[in-house]
């Protein structure tokens, strides 16, 4: 535990610890929630692993001080410095042993009464028994996937999948949205059967702890997921969460602000925004087909290619590609996504369908081109294409590659679909109404604030 993790023993009355799972898509929405709570007068201790803490501070260079009301703390993740900290299986296995005792110490010293824990860190629910803290869970995925998580033991009992994530029965799971058994999130989480089994057993075991949570905070809103939220009686949907444009966002990479100036020069409703989150990895074939497809579309494009997006493309080829498309396309390593999605020049969002990206696209009324990679992203795609009908699916060929011709055709189809654009605007209006004064999410935020102030 770092020295700063045990400072400020005289904690203020309304003091909340926020504990995200150490992955980009988990840190960002919990940071957004922290800003909301800080604005309501709470003092926030935001606890990252040391590895991610350092990345966030580095990405903040030249951005000014950390906002008042939020203190960034760090705890070791139990991995050696030379280990691959993106190895989720190994990371998950070591987190409880590495973090539990330091968390207990911080809570005792600071007299913290509430912890908001990422549902993927639900082992932290045991803190309720060991140090008497009250705990709310935060779902970084949709209410539908949370409900599916609670049904996982029944899916195994019914023989739909086994404990190693092997699909034993091809059927449609009747939730909203409906999801094929081959696309159940835990089927694709883990490179081996042993890892999938370990992940699934962890989910089942931590499900039994859920009754210790006094609320489940969801980055969604009632109108967009009514059926799923009806299955979660203690859910508090307070989304879509919006990142303050001038404040700490929790990004692991520095945002390239020059892309906003580039967007300013583009005609309204013309740019394809392409971003596949923090975990998606493309091989050389998929990467080159995507690059060629963007060129073939004939549209200007903004493409986010983070440093570890692919390891198979030669730097010389990629530099030549960027020179070839200069003026028509822009490639950046990381972008201020919500500012991009709200920009008048953006016509559509080509995405992996991570829940953060999905709910942000809904908030800004942007049609989707869906290309899920793993986990809950297939469920989110089903929402977009089958329920909300605000986007189209990019279909892979028999080799699992989305071809350049498929990209060209779907871009043309999407941007010519006035009905899809109209529905995207409809959901944008509903999302904004939900977080506005008197909206459903705004009312739930007030309920959360009242609950946390009970101490």
UniProtKB/TrEMBL annotation:
GO molecular function: transferase activity
Keywords: Transferase
Lineage: Eukaryota, Viridiplantae, Streptophyta, Embryophyta, Tracheophyta
Name of this protein: Glycosyltransferase
Entries under InterPro entries matching the protein: UDP_glucos_trans (IPR002213)
Similarity annotation: Belongs to the UDP-glycosyltransferase family.
A Pfam family it matches: UDPGT
């Amino acid at each position: 535990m770092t020295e700063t993790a045990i400072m400020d023993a005289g904690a203020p009355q309304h003091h909340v610890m926020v504990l995200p799972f150490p992955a980009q898509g988990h840190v960002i929405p919990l940071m957004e929630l922290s800003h909301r709570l800080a604005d309501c007068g709470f003092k926030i201790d935001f606890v990252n692993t040391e590895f991610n803490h350092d990345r966030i501070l580095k990405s903040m260079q030249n951005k000014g001080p950390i906002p008042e009301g939020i203190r960034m703390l760090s705890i070791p993740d139990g991995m050696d410095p030379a280990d691959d900290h993106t190895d989720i299986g190994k990371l998950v296995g070591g987190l409880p042993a590495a973090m539990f005792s330091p968390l207990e110490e911080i809570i005792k010293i600071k007299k913290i009464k509430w912890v908001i824990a990422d549902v993927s860190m639900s082992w932290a629910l045991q803190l309720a028994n060991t140090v008497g803290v009250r705990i709310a869970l935060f779902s970084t995925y949709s209410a539908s996937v949370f409900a599916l998580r609670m049904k996982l033991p029944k899916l195994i009992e019914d023989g739909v999948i086994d404990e190693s994530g092997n699909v034993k029965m091809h059927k449609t799971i009747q939730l909203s949205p409906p999801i094929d058994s081959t696309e159940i999130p835990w089927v694709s989480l883990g490179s081996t059967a042993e890892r999938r089994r370990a992940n699934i057993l962890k989910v089942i075991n931590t499900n039994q702890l859920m009754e210790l949570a006094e609320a489940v905070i969801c980055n969604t809103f009632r109108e967009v997921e009514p059926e799923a939220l009806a299955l979660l009686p203690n859910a508090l949907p307070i989304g879509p969460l919006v990142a303050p444009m001038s404040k700490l966002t929790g990004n692991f990479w520095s945002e390239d602000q020059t892309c906003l100036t580039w967007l300013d020069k583009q005609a309204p409703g013309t740019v394809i925004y392409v971003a596949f989150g923090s975990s998606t990895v493309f091989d050389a074939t998929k990467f080159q087909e995507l690059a060629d497809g963007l060129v073939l579309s004939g549209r200007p494009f903004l493409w986010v290619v983070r440093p570890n997006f692919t390891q198979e493309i030669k730097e010389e080829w990629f530099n030549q590609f960027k020179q070839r498309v200069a003026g028509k396309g822009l490639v950046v390593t990381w972008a201020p996504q919500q500012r991009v999605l709200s920009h008048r020049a953006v016509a559509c969002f080509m995405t992996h369908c991570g829940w953060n990206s999905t709910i942000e696209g809904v908030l800004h009324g942007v049609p989707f081109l869906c290309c899920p990679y793993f986990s809950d992203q297939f469920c989110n795609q089903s929402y977009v294409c089958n329920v909300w009908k605000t986007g189209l699916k990019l279909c892979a060929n028999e080799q699992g590659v989305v071809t350049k011709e498929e990209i060209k055709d779907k871009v043309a189809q999407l941007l010519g679909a006035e009905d899809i654009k109209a529905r995207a605007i409809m959901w944008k209006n509903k999302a904004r109404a939900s977080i506005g004064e008197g909206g459903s999410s705004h009312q739930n935020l007030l309920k959360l604030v009242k609950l946390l102030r009970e101490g």
